[in-house]
Amino acid sequence: MTNQSTPIIKQYVALIVLEKLDNSFDSIEQIAQKLIIGLDLHVVNEMSHSFDPEGITLAYILSESHLLIHTWPEMGIIHIDLVTCSYKSKEDFENSLNKALSEKNIKSLEIKAVDF
Amino acid sequence: MTNQSTPIIKQYVALIVLEKLDNSFDSIEQIAQKLIIGLDLHVVNEMSHSFDPEGITLAYILSESHLLIHTWPEMGIIHIDLVTCSYKSKEDFENSLNKALSEKNIKSLEIKAVDF
Q: Whole-model pTM?
């Protein structure tokens, strides 16, 4: 329903399975930072939470909307949710994601676009 | 791709247009709180950001994943993004949303489910 009376809202969700997920905070934050730089996003606030026994969530409020990353290390899974009001295509997201994960051993990577 | 080797990940995104959006922090937080209670969600961390000149973002990390709310008051728009690892159906989300917005004048409400 994007038209002159609505904002541009692009949302992409990625479900990634890695052969082996380094679930350290630094490693997950590095993926986030590579995405933020690669997609030219602008962070205005951020927080995180480490779950017991494992799993990390990183949340960024962007001037463009939000970026959320969750991990399920026991299954090698990373879930990435990007909502942006800038003109980013699914290909832009996919390219930045592949660059951010270039040193990881990807088992599978699926991306869904949410369109209204 | 939900099976025994992956967690339950349910994601619902709502785009709501109101006749007139009360963009006060309290009003938007009240909608969030009604959703959190209605869907029996559990907040482990939260943050917010007020944009200049308008627009509010509320972000909640949940023990179930996340809830994000963005507003574009100039267009009467609320965007709600829920990711949960609990067994919530689209109908659960829709019902809680309608209750949370029961005192608002809804122009349109669309919900998308993100399925892998």
A: 0.94
